């Protein structure tokens, strides 16, 4: 440990991809925090917008009554 700049136990372990191949794999994955991809978030957003529009239609024809779905509404 004398020759190291940072202690083995305290150095950062997650330095990200170090090779060009690793960087390309990360760019292709396009994940945020490893949970989902941009495509998955886009699909989810589109489905929520569709659900919101169906809710509005159901209210307009009297099929749905009561309070609206809570939360942020999708962008138009």
Order of helices and strands: HEEH
Total helix count? Answer: 2
The tally of strands reads: 2
The assigned structural class equals: mainly alpha
List the helices and strands and how they pair.
Layout: H1 20-29, E1 31-32, E2 36-37, H2 38-60
Briefly characterize the structure.
43% of the residues lie in helices and 5% in strands. The chain is built from two helices and two strands; from the N terminus they run αββα.
Provide keyphrases for this structure.
single chain; 76 residues; mainly alpha; two-stranded antiparallel ribbon; 2 helices; 2 strands; 43% helix; 5% strand
Structural account:
By secondary structure, the protein is mainly α. It has two helices and two strands, in the order αββα. The chain has one domain (1-63). A two-stranded antiparallel sheet has the order 1-2. The protein is elongated and about 75 Å long.
């Amino acid at each position: 440990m004398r020759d190291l700049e940072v202690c083995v136990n305290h150095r950062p372990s997650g330095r990200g991809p170090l090779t060009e191949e690793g960087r390309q794999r990360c760019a292709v994955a396009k994940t945020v925090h490893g949970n989902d991809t941009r495509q998955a978030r886009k699909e989810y957003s589109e489905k929520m917008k569709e659900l919101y529009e169906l809710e509005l239609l159901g209210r307009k024809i009297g099929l749905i009554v009561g309070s609206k779905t809570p939360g942020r509404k999708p962008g138009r």
